[in-house]
Amino acid sequence: MAKLAAGGYRDLSRLASGNPGMNRDICLSNREEIIRWIDRYLDELKEYRRLIEEDAEGLRDALARAQEARERWRQEGNR
Asked: GO: which molecular function terms (predicted)?
């Protein structure tokens, strides 16, 4: 991942700079939710892969939806 890193990598990887034992405990205490979100993320990545391979118009539509979702999130005060 570091080879793909841009300016946001520092913020995205902040958890990795913490205490490994404490981070393990945090992950284990939230195991079900973390696994659920990882599975959702993997499903999204698979869909983007499919779109990139097979469906240029669908990819554009997915990226437009992502842009709209980010704009809504930003307008809700998340900067």
From this structure: NAD+ binding; prephenate dehydrogenase (NAD+) activity
**Tens digits of residue pLDDT in 13-34:** 887 889 999 999 999 999 999 9
Residue 3 lies in a domain: no
The better pLDDT of the pair 46, 15 is held by 46
Please tell me the predicted confidence (pLDDT) of residue 2. Answer: 61
Whole-prediction pTM: 0.72
3-state secondary structure the chain: CHHHCCCCHHHHCHHHHCCHHHHHHHHHHCHHHHHHHHHHHHHHHHHHHHHHHHCHHHHHHHHHHHHHHHHHHHHCCCC
Distance set, CA 72 to CA 63, 75, 79 (Å): 14, 5, 11
**Residue 58 in contact with residue 51, Cβ under 8 Å?**
yes
Q: Is residue 60 part of a domain?
A: yes
